[in-house]
Amino acid sequence: MRRTFLTFLPGRRAALGKVLLHLLGGALLAAGAPTMAHAAYPDKPIRVIVGFPPGGPNDLIARMISNKLGENLGQAVVVENRPGANAEVAAAYVAKATPDGYTVLFGSSGALTISPNMKADLPYDPAKDFTPLIAVADNPMLLVVAATSPYKTTADIVNAARAKPGGLTYASAGTGSPTHLAGALFASMAGLNILHVPYKGGGPAMTDLIGGQVQMYFAGIPTALPLIHGGKLRPLAITGPASSPVAPGIPPVADTPGLKGYEASIWYGFLAPAGTPPEVVKIFDNAVSKVLADPKVQRQFANDGSQITDVRGEQFANMMRDEKAKWGAIVKQIGLAAKPGQ
Hints:
This protein is an alpha/beta fold. It has helices spanning 10-39, 57-73, 88-95, 109-118, 154-163, 178-190, 202-211, 221-229, 278-292, 295-303, 313-333; strands at 46-50, 77-81, 103-108, 130-146, 169-172, 195-198, 216-220, 233-238, 265-273, 307-312.
């Protein structure tokens, strides 16, 4: 067998080297493509931090979405409860987490739009320390009275309060809570003097309302409905802009003369630490949006009286800014505004 040896000049040798390197590089990229896709976000479990104990609305909604979210992302999504200080502990924890999309906050109104108006020393700034991902739901409340109460409409409450300034009381789940500020906004817009009675949670507040120790309460729909159906509470109005399918026939507070434009609700949403990459934000948001489009999830939200929102990014940030300003004015009016060093 005759062998032929090829001899290349230096210039041709260099050109051949470039061609071989180009071909080799392409082959390596092609071979590595599956590996790169596998390494893309997410390639490990995601933690969803909830600032309340298990069993409450924040926890239940977070778990309902996270279960489906894990299926959409192909990774485990683990809910971790870090309760304390009206969810401020959880918010502070996530604000300092690595901005890689693997630690996110499932937050709500209290820690992110109310607390900043009441405390000057919060260990986080909602506007600077978070990347708003997607707001998933909005929960209006119900203005309720005891079934034995003489008040049949919101107008009855307004007229009674005007006839006897300081003579009516409203319960709340705690000073500075959404249930407190819903009542404060009500009194402010109607020009009423109603005494606020704070409790350590919604349970004790509801007990005293049923017992007649207080006259009214702005309650969460899931909490109030069983007691309404059981004949212990009478609903007067809903705090959202329209009636709810789960509570049909209950008019908005805003329909009452003197309260046009009234609206008070608790929103829920996901936030990540500031600096989270845009491509991670997009993947996460799209996966959550897919969960919200699931008919089973939509039925679960509807049964709890929640309204799905699917508000993302800048729109979510603007919503938080507007809410903070709205509640800031009320907090200042009732003397709870943050003071330097407070």
